[in-house]
Specification:
about 15% strand, alpha/beta, single chain, two-stranded antiparallel ribbon, 9-stranded mixed β-sheet
Length: about 475
């Protein structure tokens, strides 16, 4: 503990001394030139110019300190579950048929959903759900949380060579499981983090919680300078397992699978050279005020008192109503002026001149090179792709992540980004759009700029033993082919 306190004091003292040194150097230089001017008996105009330069330098330094520092993504890590957690279709169907709480109709329904879900035979469920009957109590959920969070944290710290005592902010998001002490406290205890670490635990935020965690972190990074933040995203499946008969609640059993991700963010100037991405935009919108959106995906008890998440039939329609204003708002921030101008002109023309004319819809592909979409299902990916005019290559990462790992809730994005990095498609200057949807309904977007061409990541990602096998051509139909 004494060593830790000494290290913290040394870091604080070092940063303070650097600031004082810079300011003292400027003052010393100013007085040196002033003394020279006096000795040489130069024109008073030189004195005025020197003083003006000093004041301008001081003002510039002050204004730069007022501007929020940029937020960098140093690196991220994704959890690769052990092979003994794999759940082939035959195993899933056999196990569910042996569970007394399911009748034949429920098993047949889940088998039908599973085979049309877009998932492969290699997705993962936690050990607790391999038991018959599944173990869904608190102790097993804690074990699952440790299983998915500790390895990804270890890998992230190893990749970035960051000691735990250098972490200033910790944010953990998990929608369905909120123990006491919290998941963030479990991490702090495991890694013996500092006593002054700012920790947050987000729950109940759905699949968009990962973006909400990043948004929270970037707001904190804008307020506090020269610090590091880690965001951990996961979902604990043992608490979400539904063991009843209602079909809308059985969907979650079929498509949600194990996964977690850890992301290191920082606002340190020197981190720019070693970081992968810079955060350009963060946007959050929601429609919880609208009943249809609010109840589109809703956790509730069935008639027998068993808890589960109900997915309504009009979910896709509610998603569309949530996405449209969100995408419009984001487009107003990132699309070029000419594209926005043509869009407005086409609206005016349709309303007042030619009612049969079409409204011009700008393409996000003019400013965005890579898309990480919600992996809630093939039908949702199709609809988003259609609305954004994306081709097969644009949605390849989303479809392959759904196929290989399933719907991993708030951590799916990072498996998609790891896929694109593994394929070495992300180049310096490219923009990456991470789009998330969560219960409520909530919609979140993050737009990143790649700071360096990403190479050699296929050996360090969850795709390391299988990236060469993808894409699988027969995974999806209904997305327009790549025009390239």
């Amino acid at each position: 503990m004494n060593i830790l306190l000494s290290t913290m004091l040394c870091k604080h003292l070092h940063s303070t001394l650097l600031e004082l040194l810079g300011f003292s150097t400027s003052i010393l230089a100013t007085f040196s030139f002033e003394a020279l001017f006096i000795l040489q008996k130069w024109n008073p105009l030189f004195h005025f110019l020197l003083l003006s330069c000093f004041l301008l330098f001081t003002l510039k330094t002050y204004l730069l300190n007022l501007r929020p520092p940029p937020v960098y993504l140093v690196d991220f890590s994704c959890f690769k579950p052990p092979s003994n957690c794999k759940v082939p279709f035959s195993c899933f169907i056999e196990h569910t048929s042996m569970i007394e709480s399911f009748d034949n109709e429920s098993v047949e329904f889940m088998a039908k959903i599973l085979t049309s879900s877009g998932l492969s035979q290699e997705t993962y469920l936690p050990p607790a759900l391999h038991c018959i009957p599944p173990k869904t109590h608190q102790e097993e959920s804690i074990k699952e949380a440790e299983m998915v969070l500790f390895p990804v944290m270890d890998d992230l710290l190893s990749k970035t060579k960051l000691p735990p005592y250098d972490i200033d902010i910790l944010i953990v998001n998990c929608s369905g499981f909120c123990p006491s002490p919290s998941l963030s406290s479990i991490i702090i205890n495991k890694y013996s983090m500092r006593s002054d670490i700012k920790s947050y635990n987000l729950s109940g935020m759905g699949c968009s919680a990962g973006a909400i965690g990043i948004d929270l972190a970037q707001n904190l990074l804008k307020t506090h300078r020269n610090i590091n933040a880690i965001v951990l995203s996961t979902e604990i499946l043992s608490t979400g397992w539904y063991s009843g008969y209602e079909k809308p609640k059985l969907l979650l059993n079929c498509v949600f699978r194990m996964g977690s991700a850890g992301i290191l963010l920082t606002n340190k100037k020197e981190a720019r050279n070693s970081s992968k991405y810079k955060l350009l935009y963060s946007l959050r919108t929601q429609r919880a005020f609208d009943d249809r959106a609010y109840f589109a995906a809703f956790r509730e008890e069935d008639s027998c008192g068993k808890l589960g998440v109900t997915f309504k039939k009009d979910l896709l329609q509610a998603v569309g109503e949530t996405l449209r204003p969100h995408i419009t708002t984001l487009g107003s921030q990132i699309l070029p002026f000419t594209a926005k101008l043509w869009h407005v002109v086409s609206i005016i023309r349709k309303r007042f001149i030619d009612k049969s004319g079409e409204i011009y819809m700008p393409s996000f592909k003019t400013v965005i090179q890579h898309f990480c979409l919600p992996t809630s299902g093939r039908s949702l990916i199709r609809e988003v792709a259609k609305g954004l005019k994306l081709n097969a290559r644009d949605v390849e990462a989303a479809l392959m992540t759904l196929y290989r790992f399933g719907n991993q809730s708030s951590s799916s994005w990072w498996y998609e980004l790891a896929y694109m990095e593994g394929k070495e498609r992300v180049k310096k200057g490219d923009k990456v759009w991470l789009l998330g949807l969560g219960t409520g309904l909530k919609c979140s977007s993050l737009v990143w700029e790649c700071l360096r061409t990403i190479v050699g990541e296929s050996k360090r990602s969850p795709w390391r033993d299988c990236i060469h096998r993808y894409p699988v051509e027969a995974v999806d139909q209904g997305v327009q082919p790549d025009s390239n």
